[in-house]
Amino acid sequence: PLVSPKEMFAKAYAGKYAVGAFNVNNMEIIQGIMTAGAEERSPLILQVSAGARKYAGQNYIMKLMEAALMETDLPVVLHLDHGQDLDICKQVIDGGFTSVMIDGSHHSFEENIRVTREVVEYAHERGVWVEAELGVLAGVEDEVSAEENIYTDPDQAVEFVERTGCDSLAIAIGTSHGAYKFKCEPKLDFERLEKITNLLPGYPLVLHGASSVLPEFVEMANAYGGQIAGACGVPEHLLRKAATHGVCKINIDTDIRLAMTAVIRKHFAEKPGDFDPRQYLSPARDAVRGMVRHKIRHVLGCSGA
Ligand code: G3H
Ligand code: 13P
Ligand code: ZN
Ligand code: NA
């Protein structure tokens, strides 16, 4: 069933694991993720960015989710990723999403509090969960891009949560969006994470930009004509560690994109005569399934949770 993250995160926090939040925008991605969740008996978060919502259309997203839910008894959250204002949050809340992110991280501290509070008021009256963000991740998300990370200040995080009433908080500790996360050594600021969890005990934290940029898929894409050079993600052991330190939601989009693209490139290189989309979308969907299953079992730790 479609659920709120409330109980899911309480269990994840206590059990020292995280739930994967996978970005979706079409049928094959949704099916790949749902099948992986079924195989691992795992809770799932499916999230939709503004761009994904525009691509597929909210009606299609809702109907695809309805179909997915007909075939499972697992708890599933439908979440808006990086909502930029009250307007889009209202639209998805009214449409049936159980969770929204209001991303005011590019605003000043006071303006971030103002826009977040506004969304919290609307959402909480309707029983919908609100994720907010404090700190800035380097990289690109929709139209917004940042040059540098601005790590989350632990004291400000406490004040932000108190003043906004947001239910979970995305923090900046060194991750970033996309396939090029680290210039040299991948590193997360665990000291900062621990300060935040000590100041906000039991409070669910969220890690964006958490794809590992799996070499298996980067190499496959490049072997078949891709030009994805110097790609680098968050090592899996760092994600596992974060999951034991208050991080309850780990966002993954880039790894889905890379898996599908690598497999489709390989398919066309090996079978240049194919032109039925089912011939290459089936293995692409299966690659998403396998990759998500690996995350659930070996990175997030939420198999059977
Ligand atoms: O944070 C960004 C997510 O990967 C969504 O990306 O805005 O291109 O759909 P998108
Ligand atoms: P990645 O680009 O690392 O997959 O991050 C996705 C994300 O944070 C979506 O909000
Ligand atoms: Zn993100
Ligand atoms: Na956790």
Compute the average pLDDT: 96
CATH superfamily: Aldolase class I
Indicate the low-confidence ranges by residue numbers.
Answer: none
Strand composition percent: 15-25%
**CATH uppermost class:** Alpha Beta
Helix-strand sequence: HEHEHHEHEHEEEHEHEHHEHH
Number of strand segments: 10
Termini, distance in Å? 15 Å
Q: Compounds present?
A: glyceraldehyde-3-phosphate, 1,3-dihydroxyacetonephosphate, zinc ion, sodium ion
Q: What is the alpha-carbon Rg in Å? A: 18 Å
Q: How many domains would you count in the coordinates? A: 1
Sheet/helix structural class:
alpha/beta
Please tell me what the overall shape is: globular
Helix content: 40-55%
Describe the largest sheet.
8 strands, parallel, barrel
Question: Which architecture would the CATH scheme give at its second level?
Answer: Alpha-Beta Barrel
Count of helical regions:
12
Q: Which fold does the CATH topology refer to?
A: TIM Barrel
Give a description of the structure.
The protein is α/β, with parallel strands linked by helices and 305 residues long. It is built from twelve helices and ten strands. The chain has a single domain, classed as Aldolase class I (TIM Barrel, Alpha-Beta Barrel). It has an eight-stranded parallel beta barrel, surrounded by ten helices. Strands 6-7 form a two-stranded antiparallel ribbon. Strand 3, helix 5 and strand 4 form a beta-alpha-beta unit. The model has no long low-confidence stretch (mean pLDDT 96). It binds glyceraldehyde-3-phosphate, 1,3-dihydroxyacetonephosphate, zinc ion (ZN) and sodium ion (NA). The site of 1,3-dihydroxyacetonephosphate has 14 residues, from strand 3, strand 10 and helix 11.
